[in-house]
Amino acid sequence: MNKPTLLSTLATAALGFWLSFTTAQAQTFETVFSDNQGRNPYANLIQGSDGDFYGTTYQGGTINSGTVFKITASGTHTVLHSFNSTNGSQPYAGLVQGSDGSFYGTTVNGGASNNGTVFKITASGTHTLLHSFNNTNGSSPFAGLVQGSDGSFYGTTSNGGASNNGTVFKITASGTHTLLHSFNSTNGSFPRAGLVQGSDGNFYGTTSSGGASGNGTVFKITSSGTHTLLHSFNGTNGSNPYAVLVEGSDGSFYGTTREGGVSNDGTVYKITSSGTHTLLHSFNGTNGRNPQAGLVLGSDGSFCGTTQYGGASDYGTVFKITASGTHTVLHSFSNTSGSYPWAGLVLGSDGSFYGTTSGGGASSYGTVYKITSSGTHSVLHSFNNTNGIYPPAGLVLGSDGSFYGTTQQGGASNYGTVFKVTSSGTHTLLHSFNGTNGSSPYARLVLGSDGSFYGTTYQGGASSYGTVFKITSSGTHTLLHSFNNTNGSSPYAKLVLGSDGSFYGTTYQGGASGYGTVFKITASGTHTVLHSFGISTNGRNPYAGLVQGSDGSFYGTTSNGGASNYGTVFKITSSGTHTVLHSFSNTNGRTPRADLLVGSDGSFYGTTLLGGGAATARCSRSPPAARIRCCTASTIPMVAIRMPG
User: Fold this and answer.
1) Rounded CA gap, 7 and 639, in Å?
2) Which residues pair with 506 in a beta bridge?
3) Which helix (H) or strand (E) holds 170?
């Protein structure tokens, strides 16, 4: 699949830092250490006035809703805040330090209406919720904030507003919010990047789509809300700009588009404050592709940036480009030291440069890295929050720093186990299933907000149709529910913790027609069947689990059924309203077995086990920013990173 930040990330924090690269030599990389409190850092770091670096992780933390962290130049990592949905969830963008010394940022989800928030946090970790978006005044702020010369902060939301195409807003340090502009598609839609204040006092930004050709725009807006459309991309000269602009020493603005250009792998462009656009470079895969982040202006007048993919190993690149368009690849990532650098670089006061990769590192969950101007690279922090190495499922990190997982077989009765393993390798058997209390746990555990772990067994229980269970870090096991076929049977997939505190999951079989169910279960064991799949029309046999979108609904797949009996993609609300979003036809895929993931473009990404032609299937749901891309077995699988829906 965020994913497609697998995402993005998308680099949305304001970039005004000076960078100097004097040679185009290859870079050298080494890993320093790893930690597990937070994962998937999509955004740029920012160096605080105290010399430390501050950033966000999109996931991980106490209940996997993301974190704010601090890291020193030597690599000492501190979690300052774990989001809990009520006060925000999934911070996609980086932070900005205000003139008062506090840091300000946004979360894509969470808050009073689950439409995202604006927050303030001090260097010591005191968090304040400044604003909860309610869709009418904006929704899903993917981008970071910029502090204007008037002391207020300015930003964008990718959705919401009068036409649900996104907004531009202003907010004071005390939380007073003003809606400055609602996009209407014609003048742009779905801004994914933040704003930059030009030397003329106006703010400049981009929308990822909309405009004359639907490929995105560049716009100018005043602090009072007067909006001017400067440029509409047409595909040939670029498409889908996700990154923040940077003003050059010549007064022009420089940016990147994720797609478009000669090879449709993205571009670097220049635009004047009056709207004159110049295409500086088209990426071609070998020299990088899909630049997600903005550029950084170096002291030599050149710009430095990153591409999410491409380069020698297709794990992304660091590049330099002059104002006239001369492009040089400085480094190709290798996965071991990091992969998919969605965010850009920031120059530290020690002369080194700091950044993040959304993947790769010790456990493939992303890194924080430092690189000197001579090319010496160190991984300061590897995010490794539960990819695991044991079959059949991955590990989950407990609040005690140990890892928890399951084995399908073995244990006292050979029905499978739950185990704990420390970072030094000490293994503890917490529980052996005995058939009566469950058998054959296929799915990984999920950490509840109470610190216990929740999971499913494919078989066993009172009627041998599978169970839902809870287990503490000390090994106390509680059988929460035994499936009886009528209310479901054979849960293959893991549970997902909903924003309402309940757990949601699927059973492969059982239910009213015997073709599987979607269910909800509370932490105390109250079980509700939300939907029973029918013989064909609405899908059958959901093998994969669910993912909750930013709209609060859950999204999943069935491995069979639908219009052609090749499987479906569906949406279901927490109250049980079920909608088929897509029926596979074999030509565009067949038999989806894996969980969906959400990409940085707002789409859901997935794979089908069989079927497919030469192209990738794509199906839409409303609003148009949230789509589904399905990669078939005959296409190259997309990188899977969790993002908002």
Assistant:
1) 9
2) 518
3) strand 167-171
**What span, in angstroms and rounded, lies between the C-alpha atoms of 217 and 226?**
16
Residues, the chain? 645
Task: Compute CA 577 distance to the chain's CA centroid, rounded to the nearest angstrom.
Answer: 26
Domains in the chain, start-ordered, CATH in brackets?
46-382 (2.130.10.10), 386-526 (2.120.10.30), 533-645 (no CATH)
Residue 412 CB neighbours (<10 A): 11
Confirm if 303 and 296 have CB atoms less than 8 A apart: yes
Measure Cα distances from 162 to 77, 159, 213 in Å: 42, 10, 21
Cβ contact 167:159 at 8 Å: no
Per residue in 200-243, pLDDT tens? Answer: 999 999 999 999 999 999 999 999 999 999 999 999 999 999 88
User: In terms of DSSP H, where are the helices of 138-263?
Assistant: none
Question: Rounded to two decimals, what is the model's pTM?
Answer: 0.56
Tens digits of residue pLDDT in 437-463: 988 888 888 998 888 999 999 999 999
CB atoms within 10 A of CB 20: 15
User: By CB neighbour count within 10 A (0-12 exposed, 13-18 middle, 19+ buried), where does 578 fall?
Assistant: middle
Distance between CA atoms of residues 104 and 17, nearest Å: 18
